[in-house]
Design brief:
Mean pLDDT: 94
Order of helices and strands: HEEHHHEHEHEHHEHEEEEHEEEH
Number of helices: 11
Helix content: 25-40%
Strand content: 15-25%
Distance between the termini: 62 Å
Strand order of the largest sheet: 4-3-5-6-13-12-11-8-9
Radius of gyration: 24 Å
Amino acid sequence: LGRLREAGLGRCSHVVGKPAEGEEIGLYRDGRCIYRESRLTLRRHWSAVSHQMMRLRDDPDCADEWLATVTEPEAAGLHWSLSFDPQDDVAAPMIATGVRPRVAILREQGVNSQLEMAAAFTHAGFDAVDVHMSDLFAGRASLAGFKGLAVCGGFSYGDVLGAGRGWAASVLFNAAMAEQFMTFFHRPDTFSLGVCNGCQMMAELKSLIPGAAHWPRFVRNRSEQFEGRLVQVQVLDSPSIMFSGMAGSSAPIVVSNGEGRLSPDPNAAHDAWSRSAVIRFAADAQSAPASRYPSNPNGSPEGVTGLCSTDGRATVLMPHPERVARTVQMSWAPREAGEASPWMRIFRNARRWVG
């Protein structure tokens, strides 16, 4: 205020508010309180129009759950709670050897996350090679020369053939291509990762992947909308080689999909797919599974949003770890966070596993 007065702006500068203790907001005139209300009530009033629009445009139940979530007093919000140090590069001894195993960064028409995927694997000590499906069909590339396969996210064929299903069909209905993928998946020295559209595609290829027969399909989000947001997830105890040493950790991750809802076969045993769960949406600071929208943006049962094969070599994830492998890529992170985000560990784990 002194600086404003020095600049000749004192007469047009006024104190209009100050922070208050507690959860109430008050308006005063001449020292007398003329209005007082709780922040949560005001937030509910502020959100009322958005809520009504959502009820008309989206799934009404999801709209009601959203309103309850944004106005509840004990929402945990985004946080890091880790069982490991993200700055500990477990791949460093392997990188020091100078050997860089080849990983195929697989994409198809409409896929758009191949650069982030390649960057994450390169940083973890791999030789990331761009492989388009047309390269495989034309014989310009083969999966035989790779240790890893990363099936990238995006919207193959614009999702007009179903999210990932058209992509998978181009493999399943081509005998030579199906044989090539099956041979790769069955080699005991290989690993594979499918993310978002790649997750949906690999789920459709489960007949070619050993130990993946129990994987569900992924269908339209319960909200009936594309979901792009930073959301809290918890890492579960699983055989996935990419999540080794991360169980119990909880941190935000990016989701970006329209058909991310896990849909188990109603005739399949619950334990068959739930035992292979790798990550799930978390509802609170204790990492309880999220059932409500938007903490569970897809509507997947028990919040499960990632799976692995029984031997842990194949992992499919609906969220995008490659888009938040570095802390600077995250729209929120703790102030004390270092260069590597928690999700960089999964790429380093893969490099350590290859040896």
